Amino acid sequence: MPxxxxxxxxxxxxxxxxxxxxxxxxxxxxxxxxDVCCAYDAKAAIEKVRAASFAAVVIDADMPVMNGWEFxxxxxxxxxxERLPLVMVSAHAFPETRAKALAAGCEAFFAKPxxxxxxxxxxxxxxxxxxxxAASREEP
Length: 140
Description:
This protein has helices spanning 19-31, 42-51, 68-77, 95-104, 116-129, and strands at residues 11-15, 35-39, 56-60, 86-90, 108-111. The radius of gyration is 13 Å and the shape is globular. It has a single domain, classed as Rossmann fold (3-Layer(aba) Sandwich), CATH 3.40.50.2300. It is α/β, with parallel strands linked by helices. The protein is built from five helices and five strands; from the N terminus they run E-H-E-H-E-H-E-H-E-H. It has a five-stranded parallel sheet with strand order 2-1-3-4-5, with helices on both faces.
């Protein structure tokens, strides 16, 4: 379970412009004990992050309105969210994309299609180690 003894489940925000992807991850992660919210674009995600507390955010790289890279930059430039663990999930399954995500401040990177159980395990690992410089970490 992604919770500490006596505490509520870890709240995760999934950000993806594909509603089906968000809902699939939500269903699996909630079954796995997480409290999951969804946002379908990065601007809406920023509003949710500023309005509520999250243990981590899972963000897609490519979205309309504001992409994942812009979202990461906003989160990392704000003292209130700079330590919020970010996990990127992208269809761009290239080593360069993973390296760029980690350099931008993500705690982990997963290539789509990413199995929901793999994402759940990665989130537990990211939350267990807390936010710190991403460049020194390997993919969970």
